[in-house]
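so my prof wants the structure for this chain in the tokens format not the other one, which i didnt know existed until like an hour ago. anyway here's the sequence
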Amino acid sequence: MIFVGATLLSFPQFLNMGNQTLGFDTSASLSGGDAPAAVSIDTLTSAITGGPVKVFSAILRMFRFYFMSYGALIVYFAIIRQVGRAKGTNNSSTGLNIIMLVGGFLVMNADVIGPKLLVELNLGSS
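here's what i got, hopefully its the right format
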């Protein structure tokens, strides 16, 4: 219980550790800055001429902050569910909570995983 409490006190470090463990280079921070996300029309135009993988990559790159935030929320829910399981207040399984945890990290890195998955499944060329 103390470990989970310490994890929630340093949630960005927990997310960074999980990303590094899974081999991603995305980093989480509570002070991300005030600069808006930049979208370039030239980048989107060149992606359209580059094929389906480039278009998919450009779209995921445009919405990367949404996916990072939503993935972090899924990770948080997985931790809270596991704490509830430890207290006996919910009936979730540990396996489901671990799948939610890993799935949250995968959603956080959708802009890296999505294009590679398309290429791996032979649905487009890189």
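also thought this was worth mentioning. The chain has a mean pLDDT of 81.
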